[in-house]
Amino acid sequence: MRFKSFRNRPPSNTRITLIALAAIVAFSSIHAIAQETLYSDYPQKRGKVESLQWNDLPSWMTLSMELRGRTEGQTSFNYTQNGDRIYELTRAYGAVEVRPTSFLTGYLQFMDTHALGLPTHVVAANMRDAFDLRQGYLDFHERPGGVPIEIIAGRQELKFGSERIIGISDWTNNSRTWDGFDARIGDKNRIDLFSTSVVAVHPTSLDKHGAGLNFHGAYGSITTWIPKVHLSPYVLVHTARGVTSNQGIKGNEIETTFGAEIEGALPAHFAYEANASLQRGSYSNNSIHAGQTFDKLSYTLAKVPWTPRIGGEFDYATGNNNANSNVIATYDQSYPSNHNAFGLVDLFGYQNIRQERINLDLGPSKNFTMLFQGGFLNLAQKNDSIYSSSGSVTLKPPTGGFATTSLGQEFDASAKYVYHDHIVANIGVGHLFPGEVLVDNKHGAAETIGYFSLTYRFRVDKQSETSTTQK
Predict the structure, then answer these.
(1) What range defines the domain where residue 272 resides?
(2) Among candidates 442, 372, 411, 460, which has minimal Cα distance to 52?
(3) Is the pLDDT confidence value at 400 over 80?
(4) Stretch (H or E) spanning 369
(5) Phi and psi at residue 79, in whole multiples of 5°?
(6) In the chain, fewer beta carbons within 10 Å around the N or the C end?
């Protein structure tokens, strides 16, 4: 998130930090009710969708609503010393689902999002969208020969696996959707074949996608072939017209990403997750040669109070060393859910970056979880730019490249509590200790973020149904 300065009186750095830390401590004393323990890793949601009854509603219709408010306080907006900001992000999603036949479902969802406390001219595109269509699709589903087949046509969500490659970025006020088609074949073992274009948010007019469908893919999900292993191979194709190469030649882009994500359980309470992919293609007259990998290993102390889970993580996305002007080596992060991928401050994207991180998850009770993280952030290449969480350039390298690769270190603490199954509270604080790259290039102001949010979801049917946890 990037903002220009404004004249509202800002809170002090100390106040933001103390509010968030005090709230985390207060949460740790709350008595919990029974619910399955789930750790705090993004992007999983918590809580249940409350089911309400309205007898006058047709049996073939369901209404639903999600309400979320999040207070955020940040220091050093836009890397500016003493650039403190505090504001309220509000989000309302409302939807109607109709089922005219056994094989057809229609879905419409609106969104209304605002950033209270910020002047309009400093509000980022992912913060505000006044009453717009977020999703609207037809879902055709059948089981010929016992194999589930589903075709979704229209504006919809795409999210796969850990969402580090394709996700909706639910943390943002205006979470991501696509226009296009998705064909899903299978159940426990499934493949998605899609052709889409991402929707661009326009706060004061209707949201729409760019010209044509330019993001295509095949994403598999295999859960039964290997015991305790979830394997997800994928091939993604991104196209664009009118790009300009390093030599100033205009042309088209065709980029193919192929890789796989795997996660599973190991003996002795160990678990793992890994994702690796390569990118190849052409960018006008330049060649694309890039790639990424992230790897996680965790150990759960199952018989220890609060069930601690200790984990280590390594993330790497290639950058361009500019040794060959005909080659583009900066990894294209596609459409990830980047929140907390590189710390709660969310300053960096999955491009030209290397991170080592340690995590500690705690579950004091079955509906209360805590997460503590320490990360070490570096550039993959000194001759490439620093990229934001949206993939845009934050800071270009000077002639000859940056002197070092150190972006800094980050510490984060967050907690999640589910009250009476349906009200979800999130709270956290994160701090970035800037490294030499930022300090030496006028971006060295330390950044702290503190936040507190509440989320409530419900659905209305003709007859009361058992609440279900949202996937």
Answers:
(1) 19-133+253-469
(2) 460
(3) yes
(4) strand 368-378
(5) 60, 30
(6) C
Calculate mean pLDDT across residues 276-296. 97
Contact 317, 353 (CB under 8 A): yes
- Has residue 37 been placed in a domain? yes
Dihedrals phi, psi of 392, to nearest 5 degrees: -85, 160
Query: How many structural domains are present in the chain?
Result: 1
**pLDDT of 4-60, one tens digit each?**
333 333 344 444 444 444 444 334 333 333 333 334 565 567 889 999 999 999 999
Q: What pLDDT sits at residue 371? A: 94
Average pLDDT, the chain: 88
Q: How confident is the model at residue 432 (pLDDT cuts 50, 70, 90)?
A: very high
Q: Determine, yes or no, domain membership for 324.
A: yes
Cβ atoms of 87 and 115 within 8 Å: the answer is yes
Left (φ > 0), alpha (ψ -120 to 50) or beta: where does 214 sit?
alpha
Q: Look up the CATH number of the domain holding residue 46.
A: 2.40.160
Q: Is residue 314 part of a domain?
A: yes
Q: How many CB atoms lie within 10 A of CB 448?
A: 20
The two tokens of residue 269 are 């309470």
Give the separation between CA 442 and CA 76, rounded to whole angstroms.
Answer: 12
In a domain, 140, yes or no: no
The string of DSSP codes covering 399-452 is: TT--S--EEEEEEEEEEEEEETTTEEEEEEEEEEEE-HHHHTTT----EEEEEE
3-state SS track over 226-241: CCCEEEEEEEEEEEEE
